[in-house]
Amino acid sequence: MRKQENYDYGKLPLFDGINPEEVDGLMGCLSGHIREFKKNEYIIMDEDEARYVCVVLEGCVHMLKEDEEGHRSFLIYIQPGELFDESFALRRIRRSKVSFLAARRTVALFLPFSKVMNMCSNGCRFHQRMIENMYELLTVKNLFLMQKIDIVSKERLRDKVLAYLKLQLTGDPGMGASRGIEILGDDTVRIPLNKSELAHYLNVNRTSLCRELTLMEEEQLIAVDGDTYKVLG
Known about the structure:
By secondary structure, the chain is an alpha+beta fold. Helix content is 33%, strand content 23%. The strands form 3 sheets. Strands 1-8-3-6 form a 4-stranded antiparallel sheet.
C-alpha cells in the first residue's frame, strides 16, 4: 500500500470539472487506498467480489477472460487515468466476470464502490459530478470494446493491423487515440503496446504478427521502428 499524497488526483478524468480543493475533500470522504502490483501479477481475478471502482495511476492493466480449458483472451488494455472493475461493481450481483492483470509495474487507486455511489454526510457538492464522470468513462470503455470487436473481425491479419493503427491516428480521445498514444504526424504513431501485447490484442500469436509486419514493410504498407508505426498505404 502506498501513500496517496504522491499523486495529483485532480488530473484524473474521474474528477474532471472538480477543483483541487473539492477533490481533496472528496478523497477524504471516499476513503480510498493505493496498491502497487508487480508485472504479471493479478489485480482482480474472475469471480472475485467487485467492491471497488479502481483507477490506474501508473502502468497498464490488461482485461482478460479465461475459458474452462484455461485459454486466455485479451480483451482491452487500461491506461493511467482509466477505470477498471467499475462495471461489475454496478451489477446487482457484484462479481467480476473477467480478470485484471498488471501488464507492467502498476499502481492503482481503489475507491470503495459504496462510497462512490452514495453521497456522504458532508454533502460534497461535486460528488454528483464524479458519478457522472464515472458513467462517461464507462461509456468510453464500451467504445473500446466495440473497437476491439470491429478490429479482430477483419479476416486478414494485415487488415487488423491497419485498422488498429488507423484508429489510433484518428486523434479522437473518445475513440482511444489519447490512451498512451503519441501521434507523431499525419501517418505516424507510437503505441503503448509491445509486439507481444499487440499480438494478444489482435488475438494472434507473436510469431504470426512479426511475420506479417515484415511482409507489410516489404510491400511498403507500413514502416516499423520499435513501438512506432508509420502507415504508408
